[in-house]
């Protein structure tokens, strides 16, 4: 995933280094700064982001001289990288994705985004003509923030990277690029209406869903670095772990076991189901059993790295932080995640409350909410533990196809109920234990056991008068639990602009 910072409008390399130090966790061993008028860029990488043996590591950030001088900072993953590199003749080697982006920029300019439908990214490119192009992917899966002081613009992968220079921090809008004058221009948008032609045949849809997900894993994972898979026991992570395990065995032999990782507060449902899946797919399974005190102890660190105080997000993030940390301690450098399945296949419970005719709009609204909520967990909670996370379900072609599916395939009516993610479950029902495939949706914090205990705890330990006083000062605080997280957040990031970057989920998941 890596991270970068940039200053546009001056060449204050010392300030750039201070900014980069704020995100040192995103690549403590590989980092550097470089100038090219009118900007200075700082970049760091995890080893798994470089894409080459340690003895071949290049200096960073990337400064290219062919076909013309270019400087860039980058964080992201390009799912269709193999095909694009073949098309544009970008050779293999270190920083191939960065070199690919420069090739796209040289050939297409700002039309380069037409070729990045299957990519998550935040980047900045500075060229020989002092042009600047900074951008963030359509869904905002990669995080990016900015600040302005006079004629100077600051960019950083996390809020904390900007605090050494200013607390006037804003979120870089998803699906936009920015030029050297600081103007934001949209390059893509989510559809407002469902496609006129819908995919309605279940058998054809199942074949396509399997194809897209299998291809996504093949394009994104090569097992060059120690790789494991998060395994909650839900359908999303179980499918990814199962397909990755098969690929792992194909590469290393039938006896090879992909490491899988599960977390639970005691004998949670996640732990029980993950064991079943691990046995079924023959993985090298690891369990982290924690108690409530460990959750409480991790909240400050979690919120500092997460950069949010939204309760539902914090609950899932603390579990993600702890299991990612544990996997890193076991030597894992790349973690597979099932993130994205709920957005692609309409898995959230509140979507089931909508009539099928309103499903498309509800799904689009859900996707629009990713940029300042769930994306933070996916990026920050693994990156802070020096782990590169890969989410194969966040795949452009898969999402495009799912958006064109008949709504009853994503939420199949059965009596008075609806089965969420029905087509996804049906596709893989013969690959996994039945009780896992048809297990009802549970968010990570619910399945792992952290969701119920945290709200109840804060209801008991925070008195009513303190809570009401806080709500008078900050009406956005909705519960005692959120008040507690808000206090931690503002301790680290202040009560000003950083608060406005936080996305608050408007309903229960």
Radius of gyration: 22 Å
What is the end-to-end distance? Answer: 27 Å
* CATH level-1 class of the largest domain: Alpha Beta
CATH homology group of the largest domain: HUPs
Residue stretches low in confidence (pLDDT < 50, at least 5 long) are 444-448
Q: Tally the helices: what do you get?
A: 22
- The best one-word shape is globular
Structural class: alpha+beta
CATH topology-level name of the largest domain: Rossmann fold
Number of strands: 19
* CATH architecture classification name of the largest domain: 3-Layer(aba) Sandwich
Mean pLDDT: 94
Query: How much helix is in the residues?
Result: 40-55%
Tally of distinct domains: 2
Largest sheet: 6 strands, antiparallel
Strand content: 15-25%
* Cross-sheet strand order for the largest sheet: 2-3-1-9-8-10
Task: Quickly list its features.
509 residues; alpha+beta; Glutamine Phosphoribosylpyrophosphate, subunit 1, domain 1; Rossmann fold; 2 domains; six-stranded antiparallel β-sheet; 19 strands
Give an overview of the whole structure.
The chain is an alpha+beta fold. The protein folds into two domains: 3-186, 4-Layer Sandwich (Glutamine Phosphoribosylpyrophosphate, subunit 1, domain 1); 202-469 and 479-493, HUPs (Rossmann fold). Helices cover 42% and strands 19% of the residues. It contains 22 helices and 19 strands. The strands form four sheets. It has a six-stranded antiparallel beta sheet with strand order 2-3-1-9-8-10. Helix 8 packs across helix 21. The longest helix is centred in the middle third of the chain and has 19 residues, at 202-220. Mean pLDDT is 94; it is low at 444-448.
């Amino acid at each position: 995933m890596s991270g970068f910072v940039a200053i546009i409008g001056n060449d204050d390399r010392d300030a750039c280094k201070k900014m980069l130090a704020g995100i040192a966790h995103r690549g403590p061993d590989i980092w550097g700064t470089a100038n090219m008028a009118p900007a200075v860029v700082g970049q760091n990488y995890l080893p798994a982001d470089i894409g080459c043996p340690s003895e071949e590591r290049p200096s960073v950030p990337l400064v290219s001289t062919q076909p013309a001088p270019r400087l860039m900072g980058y964080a992201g993953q390009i799912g269709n990288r193999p095909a694009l590199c073949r098309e544009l003749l970008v050779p293999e080697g270190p920083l191939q994705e960065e070199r690919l982006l420069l090739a796209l920029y040289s050939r297409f300019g700002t039309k380069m985004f037409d070729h990045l439908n299957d990519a998550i990214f935040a980047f900045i490119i500075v060229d020989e003509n002092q042009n600047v192009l900074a951008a963030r992917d359509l869904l905002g899966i990669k995080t990016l923030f900015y600040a302005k002081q006079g004629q100077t613009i600051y960019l950083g992968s996390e809020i904390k990277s900007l605090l050494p220079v200013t607390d006037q921090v804003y979120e870089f809008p998803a699906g936009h690029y920015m030029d050297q004058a600081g103007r934001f221009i949209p390059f893509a948008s989510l559809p407002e209406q469902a496609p006129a032609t819908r995919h309605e045949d279940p058998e054809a849809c199942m074949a396509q869903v399997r194809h897209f997900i299998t291809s996504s894993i093949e394009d994104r994972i090569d097992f060059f670095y120690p790789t494991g898979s998060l395994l909650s026991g839900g359908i999303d992570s179980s499918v990814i772990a199962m397909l990755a395990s098969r690929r792992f065995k194909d590469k290393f032999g039938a006896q090879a076991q992909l490491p899988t990782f599960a977390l639970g507060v005691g004998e949670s449902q996640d732990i029980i189901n993950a064991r079943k899946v691990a046995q079924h797919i023959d993985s090298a399974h690891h369990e982290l059993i924690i108690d409530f005190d460990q959750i409480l102890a991790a909240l400050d660190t979690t919120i500092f790295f997460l950069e949010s105080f939204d309760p539902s997000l914090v609950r899932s993030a603390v579990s993600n932080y702890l299991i990612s940390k544990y996997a890193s301690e076991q030597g894992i450098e790349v973690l597979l995640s099932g993130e994205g399945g709920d957005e692609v296949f309409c898995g959230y419970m509140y979507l089931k409350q909508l009539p099928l005719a309103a499903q498309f709009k509800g799904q689009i609204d859900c996707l629009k909410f990713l940029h300042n909520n769930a994306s933070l967990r996916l990026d920050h909670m693994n990156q802070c533990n020096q782990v590169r996370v890969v989410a194969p379900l966040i795949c452009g072609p898969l999402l495009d196809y799912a958006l064109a599916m008949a709504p009853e395939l994503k939420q199949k009516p059965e009596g008075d109920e609806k089965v969420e993610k029905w087509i996804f479950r049906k596709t893989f029902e013969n690959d996994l234990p039945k009780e896992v495939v048809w297990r009802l949706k549970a968010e990570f914090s619910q399945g792992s056991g952290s969701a119920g205990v945290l709200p109840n705890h804060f209801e008991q330990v925070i008195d009513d008068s303190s809570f009401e006083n806080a709500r008078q000062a900050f009406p956005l605080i909705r519960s005692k639990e959120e008040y507690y997280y808000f206090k931690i957040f503002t301790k680290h990031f202040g009560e000003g602009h950083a608060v406005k970057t936080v996305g608050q989920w408007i309903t229960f998941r």
